[in-house]
Prior knowledge:
Structural class: alpha/beta
InterPro entries: ATPase_NBD (IPR043129), ROK (IPR000600)
GO molecular function: N-acylmannosamine kinase activity; UDP-N-acetylglucosamine 2-epimerase activity
Helix content: 25-40%
Radius of gyration: 21 Å
Shape: globular
Protein name: Glucokinase
Number of strands: 12
CATH class of the largest domain: Alpha Beta
Order of helices and strands: EEEHEEEHEHEEEHHHHEHEH
Strand content: 15-25%
Number of helices: 9
CATH superfamily of the largest domain: ATPase, nucleotide binding domain
Amino acid sequence: MTAVDIFAGVDIGGTGVKVGIVTSKGSDMAREKENYHPDKHEPQDVVDLAVTMLHNILQTTRLSLKDLDAIGVGCPGVLKAGGVIHAATSFPSWTDVPLQQLLTDNVGRPVTVCNDADAAILAEQWVGAAKGQVKDFIMLTLGTGVGFSIVTNGQLVRGGSNTIEGGHMIVERNGRQCGCSQRGCLEAYTSASALMLQAQEHLRAGRESSLSRYFEADINAELIFKHAAQGDELCKHVIHEAADYLGFACVTFCRMLDPEIIVLSGGIAEAGESYFKQIRRAYAKHTWTTFPNPVRIEKASAGYDSGIIGTVAVCKAQRDALAKSCVTQRDTVDE
């Protein structure tokens, strides 16, 4: 193994950071995750946590920063040139944060920042559910928010201003308030945050539930799925509603983009096959019948670390493109 074959991937999420060491073959050498301190979500706090975790994992793998070919970072939000996070619903106080420069200054190695949903879909294309012959697919990343990415004819689609945000597609006119300031966004009905808020609202309204024994602040999506599996009717209702909106949204995506596969990733996608069955039933209920679309709705197979692997895929693609460009320029000079 040589230094150019080793990359670090950093996945910045709404609740914590994941860091991993990945080879150019997509193999995961090591990884770790740490949640944010409740009062530390500011850019420098997140950068400090990510850098500390990176140093820790390098020590664990007996590597140094010099052994890394590059470092890839995935982050939610609208991304501007130079790795600047213009805005992110997961981090309301962030505005035009120069994340790439902050990280580069801290580690002294090349850093590439990309949208976390784009990273996740590239991981599926490289080593996951869309590896091989799949050319057209979309991915929904279901976590604190809802990320969305598109691959068409094998290429990632970013849009004219790099602001494709399917998680903020309106699914309910004058619906729930979303963190992005719109109303009725898909994210406001299907994210982990949305499930938590819905459960809390039902409890405040006096609905009976086994969740009532918990402090409101302790209720999260994982707990809701756990109690739903144990038969709690309120939790089952909250989950069924989210699945119905996801199925509905998948129909809309299919009419617009005609994908071969819709891949679901993120923490909620780890809820189990039962949830996927509900989403597929909702899709079948809402889709047309005269010309059925054989789209598959599948769980991401790159795993819980798809964000890490995807950032490495971005770095690797940039390195390979640069190498190809250098060869082309050399050939032109030789001629």
